[in-house]
Write a structure and sequence with these properties.
One of its GO terms (molecular function) is DNA binding. One of its GO terms (biological process) is DNA restriction-modification system. It comes from Thiothrix unzii. The protein has eleven helices and 21 strands. The strands form seven sheets. Strands 2-9-6-7 form a four-stranded antiparallel beta sheet, with helices on one face. The chain has a four-stranded mixed beta sheet with strand order 3-5-4-8. The protein is elongated, with a radius of gyration of 28 Å. The N terminus is likely disordered. By secondary structure, it is of the alpha+beta class. It starts with a helix and ends in a 12-residue tail after the last helix. It has three domains: about 160 residues, DNA methylase specificity domains (Adenine-n6-DNA-methyltransferase TaqI, Chain A, domain 2, Alpha-Beta Complex), CATH 3.90.220; about 100 residues, Helix Hairpins; about 150 residues, DNA methylase specificity domains (Adenine-n6-DNA-methyltransferase TaqI, Chain A, domain 2, Alpha-Beta Complex), CATH 3.90.220.
Length: about 425
């Protein structure tokens, strides 16, 4: 009680804080629907993937259904338009959306809580904005459990406090945020479109270089041993176990997190000892080697040039090393070819394995690549692509910063809204 008085004392005049469970006429979980209970049509099953941060993600192409018979047999709880769904799973836990009118009869999965608000206390749109605020999400986070994958129980979710101004002020806050968020959403859409256009510009040029080649070009197989060597890693008994990786040691052991679509990333690294490195046979990088991922995430490519600080690097079992004959094909040129649509199309047509896609060496050997016999021409092409790539990256960075600033603006507005600052000028003096 003392804590409640202290919280209320800090609130703007006329505001109160109430646990979520006290604001609902219905507060329950969705239904446990197994695969065997699903059907091709009927009643739509709304899942956590449909619940965005303040928005309903329709994803109708991925919709799942149950029959009316199953609905009655399992005594499912129907979800109606303007009900609120809260995901108790990441990411983030506690994200919420209002259910729109879709024309479907709906239920939801057990990992969502169904909230039917008492309109005498709270406006649905107000609650929808509140669940996007840092204050709400931080309180949800504090009540989560689970070490590897966080989740919140319905009981703990019901204890999350919701700040409540009087209904007229809730309406004013919603009206202000509606207008501001609509403007922000339009700006976000423009920035996202510009970001996509920057990437498309680069991809288009990269594709153009290797598909409209002109005279003098040759197409060669990657199995051409004179052109390059393909080397896989050591997959034998000496392959490192989990206990043989360390945060710092002699030799960097690459993971898929390190080889991205456009080069190396070393935000997360793991290492093996010198002894373990010496026990392994194949798979050690030399300068100017090119790495290609061939299992799981396929087609990411990176070049081990002088910009990479690590002196000792090994590939894992889901990668290959391409070691070019520099007198016939430059590493930087091969890097650009391998990340172009010329190769991506061959990869897409050849990948095997449904659960764990992979690209065996015997398949890669049959891939063709365009090669210009002039090393100077290869260098010119590589430098031009690299220059355009840098320009596109600069543009992408500008748009990413703009999107981050817009996200911060939204949080700043929400912060003002739920501390009373947004409508302070409307209050009588």
């Amino acid at each position: 009680m003392l804590k409640e008085r202290m919280v209320n004392h800090q609130l703007p005049k006329g505001w109160q804080a109430k646990p979520l469970v006290q604001l609902c006429t219905l507060f329950t979980d969705g239904d446990w629907i197994e695969s065997k209970d699903q059907s091709l049509d009927g009643i739509r099953l709304i899942q956590t993937g449909n619940v965005g941060c303040g928005e309903f993600k329709d994803r109708r192409d991925k919709a799942r259904w149950i029959s009316q018979e199953t609905f009655e047999k399992l005594k499912c709880e129907e979800v109606f338009p303007d009900d609120c769904l809260i995901s108790r799973l990441p990411d983030p836990v506690g994200r919420s959306c209002l259910i729109p009118e879709t024309g479907d009869k709906m239920i939801t999965s057990v990992d969502c809580s169904i909230i039917r608000l008492n309109r005498s206390f709270i406006i649905a749109d107000f609650f929808n904005y509140y669940t996007q605020s840092a204050k709400y999400l931080e309180e949800v986070e504090s009540k989560c459990s689970g070490a590897t994958r966080k989740r919140i129980s319905r009981k703990n979710l019901g204890e999350v406090e919701i700040l409540l101004p009087p209904l007229p002020e809730q309406k004013r806050i919603v009206a202000i945020l509606d207008e501001a968020f609509a403007n922000i959403s339009q700006t976000v859409a423009n920035a996202e479109k510009n970001l996509a256009n920057a990437r498309e510009l680069f991809d288009s040029y990269l594709n153009e270089v290797f598909t409209h080649k002109g005279e003098g070009w040759e197409e060669k197989y990657l199995s051409d041993g004179e052109l390059l060597k393909i080397i896989d890693g050591d997959r034998g008994s000496n392959y490192p176990t989990a206990s043989e990786f360390f945060p710092e040691e002699y030799c960097l052991f690459l993971s898929t997190k390190n080889v991205r679509p456009d080069g190396f990333k070393f935000n997360e690294t793991m290492f093996i000892t010198k002894e373990k490195d010496q026990a392994l046979r194949k798979g050690k990088l030399q300068r100017l080697d090119v790495v290609l991922t061939t299992r799981g995430t396929i087609g990411n490519v990176a070049i081990y040039d002088e910009k990479v600080d690590f002196e000792n690097i090994r590939i894992n079992s889901g990668m290959l090393i391409f070691r070019p004959n520099q007198s016939l094909i430059l590493s930087e040129y091969l890097f650009e070819v391998l990340r172009s649509n010329f190769i991506k199309k061959q990869i897409n047509a050849s990948v095997s394995g449904a659960a764990q896609p992979q690209l065996p060496i015997k398949t890669i050997n049959n891939f063709k690549i365009p090669v210009h016999p002039s090393i100077e021409k290869q260098k010119f092409i590589s430098n031009k692509i690299k220059k355009l790539s840098c320009e596109c990256e600069e543009l992408e960075d500008i748009y990413r910063r703009k999107l981050a600033a817009l996200a911060e603006l939204k949080q700043a507005l929400l912060q003002k809204a739920f501390t009373g600052e947004l409508t302070a000028a409307d209050q009588p003096t």
